[in-house]
Amino acid sequence: MRFACGGISRFIDQTGAGLAMLKMATDRVENPRSCWPNQCEVLHLAQKTDACTVLGLGRRAVLWVQGCPFRCPGCVAPETQPFRGGETVDVGTLADELNRVPDIEGLTFSGGEPFAQAAALANLIDQIRNRRPDLSFMSYTGFTLEYLVEHGTNAQKTLLRQLDILIDGSYQADRHTNLRWRGSDNQRVHFLTDRYRHLEHDLLNDRGTWLEFVYHSSEQGEPVGWWMGIPPQAFREAFEKKMRDSGIRWAVSS
Length: 254
Ligand code: SF4
Prior knowledge:
Elements: E1 7-12, E2 42-52, E3 60-65, E4 87-90, H1 91-99, E5 106-110, H2 118-129, E6 136-140, H3 145-151, H4 154-162, E7 165-168, E8 188-191, H5 200-205, E9 211-217, E10 223-229, H6 235-245
Parallel strand pairs: 3-5, 5-6, 6-7
Antiparallel strand pairs: 1-10, 2-3, 2-4, 7-8, 9-10
């Protein structure tokens, strides 16, 4: 975005689906309120993992939600923008699943736009925190913190109060950066609780590229891989071209 939100890109060898990069028509959100219905029992997910070390502190579970009202040119995950598709999951079931994930520092929400599903994510945090008060919660958003505080819905304000870290602002390609966790330098890291505040100075000034590659076999025995993180500009296109040139076909994650 490139990347207001931590990217994820997935390949499945042997699938016939090719890469479908979507061309976005505008760079502004047309309706900042457009989102899934304000429901708290189901979540629309593009992807999830229970082990990621590049989108937040420590080893974290990450949820990439489906649907984003922003249309940032250069978004690293345009397939997560439509408010359709993805997987619809029951929040209680997802909480049970996440409560069983061992050895994680916390959970990160990316997307897609997490604050377009604020009621469901706030409900999810409640159900996890009840059983695992040690976990931390971090979220990306294309909104600014000021917008959410002043104009956010009740659900968005509730979600905000539950987070330890918020990374705000939509991705601006002409301000691409390698600042930790951010895609462009307009994005800010807000420490909303004291939990990590002692790390604030080091984290805010840290630079580099953190990408994580994961490979495993699907239930059908197919080799499956994906990368996670905030890549350099044009990384995804170059990487996926290289894979295609090597005879490995890609499928978008939605
Ligand atoms: S805010 Fe939405 S459009 Fe912008 S980079 Fe993130 S997912 Fe993509």
